[in-house]
Amino acid sequence: MAMTTTSAKRGLCGWLLVAVLLGVPAWGQQNPSQTGPPIRLTLQDALDHARRNSVAYQAAATDAGLAHEDKKQALDALLPSVNYNNSAIYSEGAGANGSPVKFIANNAVHEYFSQGNVHQTLDLAGIADFRRLGAAAAVAKARAEIASRGLVVTVVQSYYDVAAAQLKLESAQRAAEEGERFFKLTQELEHGGEVAHSDVIKAELQMNDRRRQLQEAKLRVLNTRADLAVLIFPTFSDNFELTEDLHLAAPLPALPEVQRRAALENPEIRAALEAVNAAGHEVTASRAGYLPSLSVDYFYGIDATHFATRTDGVSNLGSSVVATLNLPIWNWGATQSRVKQAELRRDQTKRELSLAQRKLLADLQTLYAEADTASSELASLARSAELSKESLRLTTLRYKGGESTVLEVVDAQTTATVADAAYQDGAVRYRLALARLQTLTGVLTTP
Fold this sequence. Notes:
single chain, about 65% helix, alpha+beta
């Protein structure tokens, strides 16, 4: 027993140490950063916060930025470059044979270079590589859009889970209050000799059940708020409130409009198409290894025995042009191997494009059907919630008049609670179905 108590104390001390290190308030204490007025969050606010703080989305955006810079660097490589070179060569002086220098490559004992150089390379491989990197940048941009739309689904679900949990908490509070009122009613009727004690027992059991459901609803609100806070805030804080109604009207667009938008704005298809383009340019760049490449250098400056523009009244300034034509002859089949690799990758990207197109058609059909079903069921769920509340009211009145049994009242209470919860879940389902549909089409409606 002593060992168990000691272990528990150590565990508690460890938890408190972690809480202090992380800045988490102890149980029963309030975080000073959360004592101010709560932040009012619209769904768009939550999305903006999530994009800034989502590691996965920022990683995709970073990849897109890096790919864009790769494209710029490839373009720069195709344009003329300008450099200014300075060097000096000091050689050993005259040898035994009287030669002014001992090294054939040197023109004098002291030789100075100070020249500007304009360099240009004409190479089909460089052009193809620029186009490949341009397509790769488009792929990365499309993937960032995919990550953004996927994040929207996550935020929408978390945002409206909080809204639904809060509405369910209100329903649970009403149900708990109704259970207590009914328990008191059965006690009063028992004292008047109108009902049996078994009715009081059944009402008390129902009241206790409603109290437990209320505690679970409070826990659900706490958990959903914590999940949303982790998703959208850089530092943990649950000092916020939602401003958008879960049951705000959000009509489902017509199927032809959804299909048109999906054909034009689906990022997965764009990514697959650009991947095919990039693979095609890679094949071209690989085949360029069979072709000659030409480079041209223009030099202007001095190449003299003194570091000066004039020596003994003579100008040292001059210019030269060097053109180099590189003819590939033999490299043991390395170029052929690179071409084969590029062709294999190109064929694979074509297969992936075909799969993406088929998947889009299937997802469009299933996600639209899901959204349409959720939309049509939502009105029915709302009606059921209203009818269950009215049924509970009427059944309770009939019980007071001795026309119904305690089981009927308990059943009406349960039905009302379940119907209201189903209505909230149905609203979340519809919002989530819309968000998933919009991953294929972009924003169709304003939530």
